[in-house]
Amino acid sequence: MEVSILTSLIAAGSATGGILIKMAYDACVERIKFKREVLGKFVDERKRTYDEFLKIHKEQVAYQHRLHELTLLGRAGKEVNPQIIEEFPESPLRRLVLVLEEIRRIARTNEIIQISERMVAHHGSTAAALRFFLFEEGDAYGLPLFLASRLREDQELEFISAYRKDLGIGVPKGAKKNYPIIQRPWPVSDAEKILNSHLRHDLRLRKNDKQVNGKEEYTPKKLHEKDMEKVASPKLSAMTLNPVVEDEK
User: Fold this and answer.
1) Which among 64, 76, 63, 66 is positioned nearest to 232, based on CA atoms?
2) d(Cα 151, Cα 156) in Å, to the nearest integer?
3) Which secondary-structure segment (H or E) carries 36?
4) Which residues, at least 6 apart from 95, have a Cβ–Cβ distance to it below 8 Å?
5) What is the pLDDT of residues 107-146, one digit of tens each?
6) FRET pair for 160, CA 20 to 30 Å: which of 32, 153, 167, 181?
7) What angle do CA 107, 173, 104 make, to 5 degrees?
8) pTM score > 0.85 for this model?
């Protein structure tokens, strides 16, 4: 083969290679452009959905806080004003589950789906912790609820981190990779499983509680001093059937 032909082939091959590289590059650019257009098209919808989820989640937290006040009065053996019970709001949990279904539909990352599912499930754990708070005879009656609250706070930080990643916001300049998650010596999800296991075991033990007239037999339980002060506060006292008037103290 003549050198001229060889060099021509090399040149042609180089040109062909350059064309193929250019075609591959153009295709890659188009894919990135298309992906950005698709993600950009739904980014506002995703943001609205995530914001709505967090909003309803906080409503559920507030609902459980009010429920905790009633549980504290119940533990103290106080009779709650029937009007308070009648006017007690409906749990926002059903709406939270509906938004979770929407997140499963439009989320770009698995991470935000998983943390949203854990947050919804954890509200069930908090309800179980409230039951423990009401019926536990020992001094540790408030421990599961305390742990549930701390785990919820960590979950919220995980949600914010997943929220930022899914929407492509990233972390603030100078912040750590998983901002704003607080590093723990163990995964939060493992701690959730341990708490759930404890609460499920406690629930099985209490299924044999005696009942009177269709209602669970109940007697006032011991309270820590701080909880006794809460029960005696004007706010909680006003929720009982026979509230204590300030002048009567």
Assistant:
1) 76
2) 9
3) helix 3-75
4) 56
5) 999 999 999 999 999 999 999 999 999 888 899 999 999 9
6) 32
7) 5
8) no
Residue 227 and residue 142 in contact, taking contact as beta carbons nearer than 8 Å: yes
What pLDDT digit, counting tens, does each position of 211-235 carry?
444 455 557 889 999 999 999 999 9
Chain centre distance of CA 145: 15
Nearest to 24 by CA among 39, 11, 32, 37: 32
Domain ranges of the chain: 1-31, 39-209+218-243
What six digits make up the tokens of 246? 């300030």
Contacts of 107 (CB under 8 A, 6+ apart): 46, 113, 166
From the list 119, 176, 178, 124, the residue with the least C-alpha distance to 153 is 119
DSSP letter assigned to residue 240: B
Phi–psi pair at 211, nearest 5 degrees: -125, 145
**Torsion angle of the four alpha carbons 167, 169, 170, 173, in this order, in degrees rounded to the nearest 10:** -170
Give the integer Cα–Cα distance in Å for 226 and 106.
45
HEC string of 119-135 equals: HHHHHHHHHHHHHHHHH
Q: Is 213 strand, coil or helix?
A: coil
Contact 80, 73 (CB under 8 A): yes
